[in-house]
Design brief:
heterodimer, A: about 400 residues, alpha/beta, 6-stranded mixed beta sheet, 5-stranded antiparallel beta sheet, 15 strands, about 40% helix, globular, B: about 150 residues, mainly alpha, about 85% helix, about 0% strand, elongated
Chain lengths: ~400, ~150
């Protein structure tokens, strides 16, 4: 692996007799989204503040591209700071400035853009956050969720290289929550920024991040990929993740990934013991990002939610439909062979119409909804992970509609 | 001013400025000092006028002193030095008051009390410190100017 962008080495921070960080060591890599999870009060926010230099460690170092932050000259720090953006947990909007002025402030103070350019950028960012006609309002006139989105707009308006998100989705409703996640992930793919997210949204953050670190009792208890953390044997990490994971996916209302995995294991067991066949169908929305771009993140997440509801309504009670990934649903069909699963897909594509997916009252011109499906029938000797990767490779477009 | 800056501190707005690479001193304190440097002398001028008119109201209108006598005495006993001295003092007081208030607000988070309680403490100490320092500065300036 290449050199880390930010290294936190053995950082200790105490407030009075309360030691919040007790030797934290963590590496952040360029172009990756790293999630920091952990119980409330374990110092996740404090850790973020060390990275941006709002707090200085009692001992230990924060290195940026191998250079210690503490030893940097004022000018170097200034250059560095411009690359960063920080989304505060309590939004930290300027209450004496209007929404527009809040978002425009970093541009007005630190860039030489013309007024019209600033105007366009600010409006653009606010619209992307699904915020309309509030430019002249003041933060105290907004709801908590709106403030959160204004804070996100303010952080992203400068197109920063590194963004630190301190619980960006706490207090948002499920659709906006996933919309924010998909937006972060989408931006990260497009602009390649490095992101650090402090979040409690498990398993949602696993879908979008490439690395996960868990902070526990002032130390990093776990550091690795989302797949690794879900399979870890560490009892503390396991109990924390499972405690937060609800059996139902918050956005779509269908089963969550972990419940689906359990169901898969059970079906496998039934197949091996009782020779009951079962098939899995993986349904992916192929062009969620296009929908994002045309209709916005909220519309795309609503579409995903509607689609999940549609699939759920077309399955039998014994079937399990669960969220497999950001844009993927998996249906487990017990007592079904590949041909019957194929028929199931055909039935889906016959019944599906755009009104069920997109809100018919809104302008949907240029929208396209493409679905692909992969089918696999389980064999007695097949392994679940091999089956899953096989089904991912076999996907073809089976439904496409253009409005 | 102390309360304003103090609230900005406890709601992390000052931290937000720092993360945006906007110097909080430059953005919050300097404009206030500049504003005070303009407004304090103007206020002094206003109060000079109000003071003379107030003397006229109580002296002539209420107590029946001859208005012509009053104004001629004012003219003869008020030297230009009195007025310029007032302006010089007002400029010095402006700097003192604004720096103390902003300083107290800016360091609200280092107090033993947190949140709104901390802001109220900052405000109180800003008022007390400003008053005391104005008295001291007044004494020093008067002895220097005379």
């Amino acid at each position: 692996m290449d050199k880390p962008l930010i290294e936190i080495k053995n950082v200790t921070k105490c407030f009075g007799s309360n030691c919040v960080l007790d030797g934290v060591t963590l590496s952040i890599y360029r172009g990756q989204l790293t999630s920091i999870i952990g119980q409330s009060g374990t110092g996740k926010s404090v850790l973020l503040k060390h990275i941006i230099g709002l707090l200085t460690p009692d001992s230990g170092q924060v290195l940026f591209q191998g250079q210690p932050l503490a030893a940097m000259k004022k000018n170097e720090r200034k250059v560095l700071k411009r690359k960063f953006s920080y989304v505060f947990q309590d939004t930290a909007l300027f209450d004496f400035l209007s929404v527009f002025e809040n978002v425009a402030l970093p541009l007005m103070e630190n860039t030489a853009y013309a007024e019209t350019e600033i105007n366009n950028r600010v409006k653009d960012k606010l619209h992307q956050m699904d915020l309309f006609d509030i430019e002249n309002k003041y933060p105290s006139q907004l709801s908590g969720g709106m403030k959160k989105r204004v804070a996100l707009a303010r952080a992203l308006v400068t197109d920063p290289e590194i963004v630190l998100f301190d619980e960006p989705t706490t207090g948002l409703d499920p659709i906006r929550k996933t919309a924010v996640h998909s937006m972060i992930s989408d931006y990260q793919k497009r602009f390649g920024f490095t992101g650090i997210i402090v979040s409690h949204e498990i398993p949602d953050v696993f879908f979008i991040s490439q690395r996960v670190a868990m902070l526990n009792e002032g130390r990093i208890r776990f550091e690795g990929t989302p797949e690794e953390i879900q399979q870890t044997a560490d009892p503390v990490v396991r109990s924390f993740i499972q405690g937060l994971e609800s059996p139902h996916d918050e956005l779509t209302g269908i089963a969550s990934q972990s419940l689906g995995q359990k169901r898969l294991a059970r079906e496998m067991f039934r197949l091996q013991r009782h020779a009951r066949p079962f098939s899995i169908v993986l349904l992916s929305v192929e062009n969620l990002e296009d929908v994002d771009r045309i209709a916005g993140h909220v519309a795309s997440q609503t579409a995903l939610k509607n689609f999940a509801t549609f699939v759920k309504n077309n399955t039998y009670l014994t079937d399990t439909c669960f969220r497999y990934d950001m844009n993927k649903l998996m249906v487990v069909l017990p007592d079904t062979d590949a041909d019957q699963a194929d028929m199931f897909c055909k039935k889906l594509s016959r019944n599906l119409n755009t009104d069920a997916i997109f809100d018919p009252s809104e302008d949907r011109k240029g929208l396209c909804f493409a679905l692909s499906a992969g089918i696999a029938q389980a064999q007695e000797d097949s392994r679940i992970d091999a089956m899953l990767s096989g089904v991912e490779k076999r996907q073809n477009i089976f439904y496409e509609c253009r409005i | 001013m102390a309360a304003e800056v103090g609230i900005m501190r406890i709601s992390e707005q000052i931290d937000a400025l720092e993360t945006m690479d906007i110097d909080p001193i430059r953005y919050l304190v300097s404009p206030r000092i500049a504003a005070a440097l303009i407004s304090f002398p103007l206020l002094t001028a206003l109060f000079d006028v109000v003071g003379i008119l107030g003397g006229y109201l109580t002296g002539s209108v209420l107590l029946g002193v001859n208005p012509v006598l009053y104004f001629s005495r004012v003219e003869s006993s008020v030297a230009l030095m009195d007025v310029t001295g007032g302006f010089i003092k007002s400029v010095v007081f402006a700097v003192i008051v604004v720096s103390i208030c902003c300083f107290q607000g800016y360091y609200t988070h280092t107090r033993s009390e947190f949140g709104a309680k901390g802001v109220s403490e900052s405000t109180t100490s800003a008022v007390v410190l400003s008053c005391v320092l104005i008295l001291i500065a007044d004494y020093a300036l008067t002895s220097f100017l005379l």
